[in-house]
Amino acid sequence: MDRSQSSKLKADLPAFALALRWVRRGLGGGGKVRLYDRLGRLTLTVVALLVAAALPASAQSATAARGGLPRMWDGKPDLNGVWQALTTANFDLQDHSAGLGVPAGQGVVEGNDIPYQPWALTKKQENFRDRAKADPEEKCFLLGVPRTMYAPYPFQIIHSPGYIAVFSEYAHTTRSIFMNSEHPPGPIEWFMGDSRGRWEGDTLVVDVKYFTDQTWLDRAGNFHSEDLHVVERYTMTTPDHIQYEATLEDPKVFTRPWKISLVLYRRKERNVRVLEYECYAYAEQEQARRGELGPK
Amino acid sequence: MLTRKALVLSLATTFAWMACTIVIAQEGGGPRKTPIAGCPPVSRDFLPCAKAKAAAFKPARNPDGTPNMNGAWNPATANGSQNIEDFPGDAFLNPQITLIVDPPDGKVPYLPQWANKRQDNWDHYIDPLGTCYLTGVPRQVFAPRGIQIIQAPNVFAFVGEFAHQYRTIPTDDSPHIGDSIRLFMGDARGHWEGNTLVVDTTNLTDRTWLSISGHFHSDALHVTERFTLVDADTILYETTLTDPKVYRQPWTMAMPLVRFEKGHEVWEEPCFESDHDLPYLLREHKLWIGLNPPN
Is a pLDDT exceeding 80 seen at residue A76? Predict the structure, then answer.
């Protein structure tokens, strides 16, 4: 089933949308994925063991001591904690003046230029005009990647050696970053994409693909297609700061890859935790309360 | 006509298909009969057997010394939280043998004034999972399609695949958050008692259910959970629910969590984002917004 057929089915059979999702999860080539994954993991494990055996012990312990950073069990920088970006990027990735309800902001795009193809620039301008209703954040949808990382909500990183999870306060967004493994065979459309991580020295590099075209990059209408490919780099610079970079590539929408760069700050308040913003539940309940939500 | 019950039926069918692709095969659509970790799978028999085995089991450990429970786990006997009491099965829901081990009759000990509320819920309200709301606690652990456990220093976490929900459990002796903050997934704090992770969850709402069949609780719910490895591929999960507004006494469920096959990954299910069926569900049922919805 190709993607256009898949989305058409969803639109035509709303009552079975939920069931379809489960069928897809249960039957959609799952067996192949598992086998593929197992083989990939076996290869990687063998390679990792060979590399580890080849490294002198002194080099390994030197890594564990370097940089004055908290370290995880495997010697990598320990990313566990509650983090939050402090930029206006969720309003607009680029430099922008203030407006009603929008603080002015310095952009996070390198060179401040998003290299849209001509049609896509027109589309971005339409999105900007329609943003009050068209922004997926207004519909309480998952925000995608990288937007989740600079949206104005704290998120918790749970960092274990084989699996890194990112839990955002916004609509209980969950990102699973599977370490040292391959993307499953596509095409698949996920709001948060499929994240595969690896370490380059002390930098966590995450390769993310398999997106939908239903997420935006900010409230100003910056957007992408389902062919978006994001490479994120997380570099802990102090125990309380992560330098975050993301390279965005999408041959349908942009003329070249481009990059954003910002800082993630550790939330230091005593007993701080990520709470909940169940946006869509509150919206529906408010409608129900007003009697606006009934059979159509 | 598209109704909630049609949806439930389609979901139940999907469960059956799912079960074929996973290790756990339902036998003739009925409750599982094959042993789990060498113990009978029915909760009241599984509990004492699993406890005895766990006492003798030496689990693999994380570098910080905690038993290693990392991985993806399947609540193999819970039927995707369709029901938690004995149920013969009907056109909509699968047969179920009670998950409740205390009280011994295997029934939720509702106070007399709430005796008919579960039936009323089933007849008139949409299961909050049907509208993609969070599972709440303890339903997260036995909701459809299982959980991923992730362990890091001083924190234990779950990712549930259903509607992409999570729960983090600090195990650092930190206190609960303020009582006036209410969360669908509550505020969980954990500690280790030997090889058992004990989780205490408070700050819950009355907006979540315990099963598709309509079992419920109030915002006074307090949940205690115990996770113990029985062998390398099985966790004994016990949970005690205390809620003096709704239950006569605390009551306890027990069940096995079985490790999914190697390589199983918990994936994204954008439930609300692709859910267009609410208007249809609302033809015959109401949105559940708690035991005493404000007007």
Answer: yes
Distance separating alpha carbons of residues B3 and B12, to the nearest angstrom: 14
Supply the pLDDT for residue B284.
87
B263's CB contacts (< 8 A; 6+ apart) are A34, A37, A38, A41
Position A288 scores a pLDDT of 77
Q: Is residue B151 part of a domain?
A: yes
The structural domain count of chain B equals: 1
Which residue range is the domain that position B224 belongs to? Answer: 4-281
Nearest to A148 by CA among A250, A249, A277: A277
Q: What is the mean pLDDT of chain B?
A: 89
Please judge whether B168 and A158 are an interchain contact, meaning their C-beta atoms are less than 8 angstroms apart.
yes
Locate tokens 């993806």: which residue? Answer: B72
Helix ranges (DSSP H) in A130-179: 131-134, 147-150
The ipTM assigned to this model is: 0.88
pLDDT band for position A84 (50/70/90)? very high
Q: What is the average pLDDT across B267-283?
A: 80
Nearest to A17 among B21, B134, B275 (CB): B275
What is the CATH architecture assignment of A71-289? Beta Barrel (2.40)
pLDDT tens profile A137-190:
999 999 999 999 999 999 999 999 899 999 999 999 999 999 999 999 989 999
> How far is the alpha carbon of B132 from chain A, nearest alpha carbon, in Å?
8
Q: Per-domain residue ranges for chain A? A: 1-54, 71-289
* 6-25 in chain A: CB under 8 A from chain B: 10-11, 14-19, 21-23, 25
Of residues B53, B37, B75, B57, the one with CA closest to residue B237 = B75
B288 is a domain residue: no
Domain annotation covers residue B292: no
